[in-house]
Amino acid sequence: xxxxxxxxxxxxxxxxxxxxxxxxxxxLFFALLLRLSQNLLHxxxxxxxxxxxxxGFAVNLIIMRYYxxxxxxxxxGKSLMALTVIMxxxxxxxxxxxxxxxxx
Length: 104
Description:
This protein is mostly helical. The protein has helices at 3-7, 12-21, 23-41, 49-70, 74-95.
């Protein structure tokens, strides 16, 4: 199946898959930017790695807006929103005060 055609469908399963896959590379990208700014520019020294994970979840909201506003795929957008809210709530309950650190 063509990936472009698959991404242009209005399915709940597409929203769930995108919602689970997209935050990981986004969080790693933001963590890399944080490390570079901390080491080279000596700024953002009080930002923890756990807080960067929330930025990875925020990327889901941008994708959700694209699917709802531009493509008018409401099932995909709603499932992305629901999954993002659930992940943020789980983060706030279980991971907010942990001392997680990225290995780089």
